[in-house]
Amino acid sequence: MKKAFYFVFLTISVLCCSSNNSDVTTPGTDNTAIYFPPINSNTWKTESLANLGWNTNKLQPLLNYLETKNTKSFVVLYNGKMVIENYMNNHDANSIWYWASAGKTLTTTLTGIAQEQNLLHINDKVSNYLGNGWTNSALEKENLITCKHLLSMSSGLDDALGNDVSANNLKYKADAGTRWAYHNVYKKMQDVIVEASNTTWTNYFNSKLKNKIGMTGAWVPAGHFNIYWSNTRSMARFALMIYANGKWENNQIVSENFINEATNTSQNINQAYGYLWWLNGKSSYHLPNSQLQFDGKLIPNAPNDLFAALGKNDQKIYIVPSKKLVIIRMGNAADTDNFALSSFDNELWGKINDLIE
């Protein structure tokens, strides 16, 4: 049975929620106020579909579609306020789920924070932090790889060798910056941050991001790396902070300049890729496990300014500044297993457009 939780707020008790602050808004770029839910409360202000002028008759068909597509949770924020919060397929507001590669953008954000603290710079070579021999490449090739190459998936390391990112499995394929390939070597950026900050990844993440915006959740070991698990609202909190140009209330969590850089094309091969963020509205794109270039937009039905965190089996964060939207989808694969983009993205946006336009 469907469980539609429009404007009903359930207690969220996943792991540890954090500290202070009250119900605050901050000016948006168009002189409207972005709403931020309080850090130490389960309340979240709402906005009705009717007030937004959306087509309320299209809501239930959208939810029906999501349920048949193995969705567990679906959230829509408008300028920070909750418009839709829906749970299905034995999931609820207290349930946790994995972010998969949508969580790569957490690493991006921590990188921006560390750079703002002058702990690192993304144009530095990775070996400045990890020492020589962090790959199985010749030293002159290893020294070409910068932190920016890790964030932009252009390290030149061989992506066909599996998920193991130990030195023996990181082999030269091409010079850094000359080849785009979806590769878990981005995880080495977490190691860079650990070395630069002289603390653990979890401690740095909790103190610089999680606790400051009221997220819950934890990093859970999964093979050769850790994956973030949380409830849906925690993913929505993170996405809202990014939508607000790196701010939470009056606190600048990560610099606006870095957010702008991270959500624009990061290299000259895959136009639709920033710093671990996927970008819509470009004239071409590349996908994981392929060296082919595909012409056209990443998600044709979606607005051009959309940028997204896309995780395995259709974990989704969509951020659309022009529409003031943050959209979250968690669940199992809508159709077949996938790494990032799938046909579900475009189908879903067709139905979202029916609702909002």
From TrEMBL:
GO MF annotation list: hydrolase activity
Organism this protein belongs to: Postechiella marina
TM region(s), chain numbering: none
Name of the molecule in the record: Serine hydrolase
Domain Beta-lactamase-related: 73-336
Keyword Signal: yes
PANTHER family per record: BETA-LACTAMASE-RELATED, BETA-LACTAMASE-RELATED DOMAIN-CONTAINING PROTEIN
Leader peptide range in chain numbering: 1-22
Keyword Kinase: no
Domain of life according to the entry: Bacteria
InterPro entries referenced in this protein's UniProt entry, alphabetically: Beta-lactam-related (IPR001466), Beta-lactam/transpept-like (IPR012338), Diverse_Enzym_Activities (IPR050789)
Keywords, comma-separated and alphabetical: Hydrolase, Signal
